[in-house]
Amino acid sequence: MVKVAVLGASGGIGQPLSLLLKLNECVTELALYDIVNSPGVAADLGHINTPARVTGYLPADEGLKRALTNAHLIVIPAGVPRKPGMTRDDLFKINAGIVRDLATGIAQHASNAYVLIISNPVNSTVPIVVEVLKKHCVFNPKKIFGVTTLDVIRASTFSSEVSGADPCEVRVPVVGGHSGPTIVPLLSQISPPQSFSKEQIEKLTHRIQYGGDEVVKAKDGAGSATLSMAQAGARFAASILEATVKGKAGIIEPSYVCLEADKDRGAHLKSAVGGLEYFSHNIELGPEGIHKICEIGDITEYEKKLLETAIPELKLSIEKGAKTTITNCIYF
Ligand SMILES: NC(=O)C1=CN([C@@H]2O[C@H](COP(=O)(O)OP(=O)(O)OC[C@H]3O[C@@H](n4cnc5c(N)ncnc54)[C@H](O)[C@@H]3O)[C@@H](O)[C@H]2O)C=CC1
Ligand SMILES: O=C([O-])CC(=O)C(=O)O
Fold first, then answer.
1. Where on this chain does NAD(+) bind (predicted)?
2. Does 328 reside within a domain?
3. Which residue range is the domain that position 7 belongs to?
4. How many domains does the chain fold into?
């Protein structure tokens, strides 16, 4: 039995993500939780002829508990998206409370599950989840993931538009966090190798860092990336299932994680990034979640400067998330 729960399943990301998870034949039960419309989304998806049984839950009648109980994997796209002119950090006031309450449910009803956090600001919401799990003494750093897959998907797409390479084949490590200057693409490590001019690198870097803004602007008040994010979330969830259910070795995905998940390499990386407790980088997945956090490797002077700029902002976002208390959260 492989139960996957989606929290925020009726939203712009939640619905297409749930559709893609319903198409994943490794999933046998798909539990959809939201404060609105989840039974309808579940009824609709339930007609698709793939193995997963789909159930929908609202907060009434212990819906969160029922959605979470026995979940192997939980994906969280619950929360409000940006409008033009907002930063991801502007979402903290509302989303911090939502994520904290969902994390409390996870601590109580599914403390052994793998948790993928999509809700923004990811740089802060991941520390919120970790602090809640720590408070309940159920924290396992190898199982908590901030979803940054969309950054590498964008890096593959945008760099291929310049180079003409096949976007399906191109991989660019993107490190740091998930907001503007904290998104640090390492174009010098692009695979297959590719050389770009200084100007191309600067333009590409900026586009990858602010790719989210392109969508927010184009949607003109109707939200942020949903379809590309659903694909990114489904890809990451599929990789976690491949590694933890099917036991496939050597899968590498990027994610924003707690560096203590990999004692040796994590400690090394922590000292290389100014003592940050959380950082996004390529992760090798294993049967128990995070198997190995990859090294940063050789980077150019330009990339070192980007990293130096990212570190102070990341530090503030991490502290803000870790300090979240009942009083600084707003509810619907
Ligand atoms: N990590 C990433 O790369 C990305 C993250 N995001 C973030 O994902 C989040 C969701 O975005 P959208 O789906 O576009 O928003 P949306 O507003 O379309 O959907 C959010 C859903 O969350 C639900 N919700 C609100 N409070 C809830 C609660 N307490 N429990 C359960 N569900 C709750 C809402 O009812 C709604 O259905 C935003 O915070 C957005 O910034 C968006 C794109 C990329
Ligand atoms: O830009 C946003 O607010 C949503 C997001 O995180 C992204 O698209 O990368």
1. 8-14, 34, 95, 118-120, 229
2. no
3. 3-146
4. 2
28/50 Cα distance (integer angstroms): 9
Residue 293: other Cβ atoms inside 10 A: 25
Ligand nearest to the CA of 231: 1
CA dihedral 176, 122, 270, 261 (to 10 degrees): -120
Instruction: Tell me whether strands 3-7 and 29-33 are parallel, antiparallel or unpaired.
Output: parallel
Nearest-CA residue for ligand 2 atom 9 is 212
pLDDT one-digit tens code per residue, 78-119: 999 999 999 999 999 999 999 999 999 999 999 999 999 999
Check pocket membership of 154 for ligand 2, CB cut-off 6 A.
no
- Please tell me if the CB atom of residue 64 comes closer than 6 angstroms to any atom of ligand 1: no
Residue of 117, 216, 217 best suited for mutating to test ligand 2, as the one with most atoms within 8 Å of CB = 216
The token pair at 94 is: 């509302």
The enclosing domain of 119 has a CATH number of: 3.40.50.720
Domain boundary among 129, 146, 163: 146
ipTM associated with this complex: 0.99
Question: Is 100 assigned a ligand-binding role in the annotation?
Answer: no
Confidence (pLDDT) at 329? 39
Rounded-to-integer distance, Cα 8 and Cα 33, Å: 6
Sign for the pseudo-dihedral over CA of 247, 249, 252, 257: positive
The CATH number covering residue 317 comes to 3.90.110.10
Same domain, 99 and 212: no
Regions of the chain with pLDDT less than 50: 326-332
Q: Is 66 annotated as a binding residue?
A: no
Q: Is the CB of 78 under 6 A from ligand 1?
A: yes
Kindly state whether residue 332 falls inside one of the protein's structural domains: no
Q: Is residue 326 part of a domain?
A: no
| Ligand 1 centroid to residue 272 C-alpha, Å | 33
| Residues assigned a catalytic role | 178
Say if pTM beats, i.e. exceeds, 0.95: yes
